[in-house]
Amino acid sequence: MTPDILIRAGDRLPVLRRTLELDGVPVDLSAATSIVFKAQGASGTVISGACTPVSPSIGVVDYAWTTNDALVPAGFYAAWYEV
C-alpha cells in the first residue's frame, strides 16, 4: 500500500514519484501512450495531469505538481493513475 501524501497549500515540491504495480508486481509501461495522475474529492476530479516516465520498464513515473494543483483546497482525496 502506498503511503498517504501530505501536501500543504501552495506546495509544488517534492515531485510525486511512484512505481506503478499490479498485484505487487511493477507494470511495464514501455508501450504506454499516456500516463495520467488523477485525484478526486467530494466535488469531483480536482487534479488530472500527465506523468513523466522515469523507468518505464519497471513502472516508475513522476508527477510534477502544477500551479493549479497547489490551489486545491485542503482535504482528503482519492488518487489513481490511468495508463
- Strand proportion: 35-45%
- End-to-end CA span: 19 Å
Shape descriptor reads elongated
Please, what is the average pLDDT? 90
- Which percent bin holds the helix content? under 10%
Tally of DSSP helical segments = 0
Strand order of the largest sheet: 1-7-6
Uncertain regions: pLDDT < 50 for 5+ in a row?
none
Biggest sheet features: 3 strands, antiparallel
Number of strands: 8
The helix/strand class is: mainly beta
Description of the molecule:
- This protein is 0% helix and 41% strand.
- With 83 residues, it is mostly beta strands.
- The relative contact order is 0.32.
Can you tag this structure with a few keywords?
83 residues, mainly beta, 3-stranded antiparallel sheet, 8 strands, 0% helix
What is the topological layout?
Layout: E1 16-19, E2 21-22, E3 25-26, E4 36-41, E5 44-50, E6 52-55, E7 60-63, E8 78-82
Antiparallel strand pairs: 1-7, 2-3, 4-5, 4-8, 6-7
Concise summary:
With 83 residues, the chain is mostly beta strands. The chain is 0% helix and 41% strand.
